[in-house]
């Protein structure tokens, strides 16, 4: 290839890149030019077709919780003298950076009444907390940006930058100028608007809220810890109880304690009931006896009795950190039968890493790891697995009153991911998992979000 050919090829690539960058810059300028700052619009004039001022913008109403990906503006709240009135979006011809122009000289003004899903953007969203679902963090809306779309105006983004807050403190001419340096697309945002009326559940959980359900429990826990009280209550209401309980299990103990105290007793009891037994017992231990009883009395009798039993064990012992969720098997069962019952416990997969084999009197014979079950043939009997495991000696166990430090030593020596807790007669009463030992022995470092088996 000649030098001229190389030079021309390089020049062509550079020219193509320059053209592409110019197109992107032009598109960026076009988008920027079409944006309207909500902060700059508030207080601006509303003029009719003749150019006469009708009133001033007090707030912008949008259908925040509808099916649309970008919420449409449904109207404005105007100040006309001492009166506040609602102007429907159908009367709006153009929304400019500093003012609103109407379609006609005659305006139909009415009293404002919220409809399902409607929110006052300045009052309910601006300067309020929201969740950046993509960035998995809690942030605050410094400004909201509106833009024309077809025949209507929609909410397209949230500005969360510090310079925007400073802009709003400056002169009026600065306030109306969008500065979209750090803008979140509306579809990546989960907003909170406590005063808003909500639509039906199938609508409320679409778009950004549905994205919350895809977050890991540990991420949801971090978000819950950063939210204020009212926003935290709303987020819990959006999540189904099982999903919320998973997140609560990952929260710092002090934050979880505050959350349970803030929640309505019936709601708190439901959340505790959905948590894994060991995590629920830990949460209840941080409450006062009166608070514990108030929650336990609101729970089903069986679950409440199980938790009361766990609470009898001292903190810092194996019994105080164990889960009572156990999967047991008998010698005369087949591997296929055990796998079938294991599949029925899929919702508790983070609490089960082995199957305890017991005799007719429920005394422990063997502890079979899930890996050994996974590689065994369906027709293999549990008795055969017990015989094979016998060459390695008896399973590692601890008593309920065993100190956690000693339990940790036995866990390391056994090279296992959990230990069975047995009573005086050798019957398994619970299981203590490696991550529960870490959380209990390293409280100063907080929860480690240890990845449990098959999580």
What can you tell me about this protein's structure?
41% of the residues lie in helices and 21% in strands. It is α+β, with helices and mostly antiparallel strands. The strands form five sheets. Strands 2, 3, 4, 5, 6, 7, 8 and 9 form an eight-stranded mixed beta sheet that branches. A hairpin with a 4-residue loop joins β6 and β7 (100-102). α10 (241-248) crosses α12.
Helix and strand layout, with pairings?
Blueprint: H1 3-34, E1 36-37, H2 38-41, E2 45-47, E3 53-63, E4 73-80, E5 83-88, E6 92-95, E7 100-102, E8 109-110, E9 118-120, H3 121-125, E10 129-132, E11 137-140, E12 143-149, E13 152-159, H4 162-169, H5 172-175, E14 183-185, E15 189-191, H6 201-204, H7 207-212, H8 217-226, H9 229-238, H10 241-248, H11 253-262, H12 265-274, H13 277-285, H14 289-296, H15 301-311, H16 318-321, E16 328-329, H17 335-343, E17 354-358, E18 364-369, H18 370-375, H19 382-389, E19 397-398, H20 404-414, E20 418-422, E21 428-433, H21 434-441
Parallel strand pairs: 2-7, 16-17, 19-20
Antiparallel strand pairs: 1-12, 2-3, 3-4, 3-9, 4-5, 5-8, 6-7, 10-11, 10-15, 12-13, 13-14, 17-18, 20-21
Helix pairs in contact: 8-10, 10-12, 13-15, 20-21
Keywords: CBS domain
Protein name: CBS domain-containing protein
InterPro entries: CBS_dom, CBS_dom_sf, Mg_transptr_MgtE_intracell_dom, MgtE_N_sf, MgtE_transporter
Task: Briefly summarize what is shown.
This is CBS domain-containing protein. The protein is α+β, with helices and mostly antiparallel strands and 455 residues long.
């Amino acid at each position: 290839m000649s030098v001229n050919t190389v030079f021309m090829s390089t020049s062509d690539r550079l020219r193509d890149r320059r053209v592409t960058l110019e197109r992107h810059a032009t598109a960026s300028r076009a988008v920027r030019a079409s944006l309207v700052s909500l902060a700059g619009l508030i207080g601006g004039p509303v003029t009719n077709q003749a150019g006469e001022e009708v009133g001033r913008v007090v707030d912008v109403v949008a259908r925040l919780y509808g099916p649309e990906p970008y919420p449409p503006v449904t109207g404005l709240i105007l100040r006309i003298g001492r009166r506040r009135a609602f102007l429907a979006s159908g009367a709006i011809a153009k929304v400019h950076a500093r003012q609103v122009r109407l379609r006609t000289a005659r305006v139909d003004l009415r009293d404002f009444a919220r409809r399902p899903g409607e929110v006052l953007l300045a009052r309910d969203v601006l300067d309020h907390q929201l969740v950046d679902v993509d960035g998995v963090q809690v942030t605050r809306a410094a400004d909201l940006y509106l833009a024309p779309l077809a025949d209507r105006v929609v909410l397209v983004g949230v500005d969360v930058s510090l310079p925007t807050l400073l802009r709003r403190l400056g002169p009026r001419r600065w306030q109306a100028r969008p500065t979209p340096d750090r803008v979140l697309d509306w579809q990546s945002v989960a907003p909170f608007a406590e005063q808003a009326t909500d639509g039906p559940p199938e609508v409320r959980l679409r778009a950004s809220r549905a994205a919350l359900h895809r977050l890991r429990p540990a991420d949801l826990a971090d978000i819950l810890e950063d939210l204020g009280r009212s926003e935290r209550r709303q987020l819990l209401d959006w999540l189904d109880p099982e999903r919320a309980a998973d997140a609560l299990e990952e929260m710092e103990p002090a934050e979880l304690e505050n959350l349970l105290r803030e929640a309505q007793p019936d709601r708190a009891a439901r959340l505790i009931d959905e948590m894994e037994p060991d995590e629920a017992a830990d949460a209840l231990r941080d409450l006062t006896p009166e608070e514990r009883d108030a929650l336990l009395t609101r729970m089903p009798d069986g679950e409440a009795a199980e938790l009361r039993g766990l609470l009898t064990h001292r903190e810092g012992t194996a019994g105080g950190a164990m889960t009572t969720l156990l999967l047991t098997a008998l010698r005369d069962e087949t591997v296929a039968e055990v796998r079938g019952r294991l599949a029925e416990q899929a919702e508790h997969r983070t609490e089960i890493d082995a199957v305890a084999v017991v005799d007719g009197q429920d005394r422990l014979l063997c502890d079979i790891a899930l890996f050994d079950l996974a590689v065994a043939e369906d027709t293999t009997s549990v008795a055969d697995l017990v015989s094979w495991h016998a060459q390695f000696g008896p399973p590692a166990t601890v008593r309920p009153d065993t100190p956690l430090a000693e339990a940790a030593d036995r866990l390391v020596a056994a090279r296992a991911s959990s230990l069975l807790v047995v009573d005086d007669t050798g019957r398994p009463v619970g299981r203590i998992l490696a991550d529960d030992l870490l959380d209990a022995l390293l409280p100063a470092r907080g929860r480690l979000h240890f990845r449990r088996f098959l999580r």
